[in-house]
Amino acid sequence: MIFTFRLVSDEVDNFKREISIDSDATFLDLRNAICDSVNYDKGQMNSFFLCDDNWEKGKEITLEDMGADSADDVYLMEETPLSDFLDDEGQRLIFVFDYLTDRCFFMELKKTQPGRSLKDPVCSLAFGNPPHSSLTLMNSRHALTKRLRKQLQPILILMRVSMDLTNTTTTNSTPRDLTRSIHTNKNNSYSGVNREIHHSSRA
After folding, report:
1. CA spacing 20 to 30 A to 44: which of 31, 134, 169, 196?
2. Beta 75-76 vs 57-62: how paired, if at all?
């Protein structure tokens, strides 16, 4: 089976890559294909994370076993075929290419082709320039500030709701309405990524 993945970035608008690869290839093969498509140094530490529909990180497939104490199993890219964890279109992953600032690509399995095979991975779509693999001090501050704002957004939403309740003497909103509003605004932090991952650049 052939898998086709789409990659987007929350740092660079209009950046896309699509990688086609055999389902029996390893996560290391996929990682190397991604690095080749964006011209990144393969000597850096990377990890894949399986994600749910809200981009919450789950199981990690890492480049190297760092020896950290954990009850969880360690899955290494070199030893793990893609087909061990992936089979359905729409499955999501995060590829962390910069551990210092947790910078990453958002990935989705866009297409599966049963009954077909592919000897070597292929970058079937390259659109836009990728983010820099390593940041200057100024760019690093910008990236960290952007990511910090995203992480603090749920707290800021709660503060704003609290202030609204304090300043409003009467309201028709029920607790369920407020909970739904908070949840909706929290998920908006990934709305741009979701639009990019689903938008097709081909007719």
Report:
1. 196
2. parallel
Beta bridge partners of 188: none
- What per-residue confidence (pLDDT) applies to 16? 96
DSSP symbols for 26-79: BHHHHHHHHHHHHT--TTS--EEEEE-TT--EEEEEESS------SSPPEEGGG
Angle in degrees, 0-180, between the axes of helices 137-167 and 175-187, rounded to the nearest 10: 170
Separation between Cα atoms, residue 6 and residue 30, nearest integer Å: 12
Backbone angles phi, psi at 169, to 5 degrees: -85, -30
pLDDT mean for each 10 residues of the chain (203 residues): 96 94 98 96 93 94 78 88 96 93 94 96 95 66 58 61 58 56 57 67 46
Task: Indicate the length of the chain as a whole number.
Answer: 203
Contact 86, 3 (CB under 8 A): yes
> Alpha-carbon distance 141 to 36, whole Å?
27
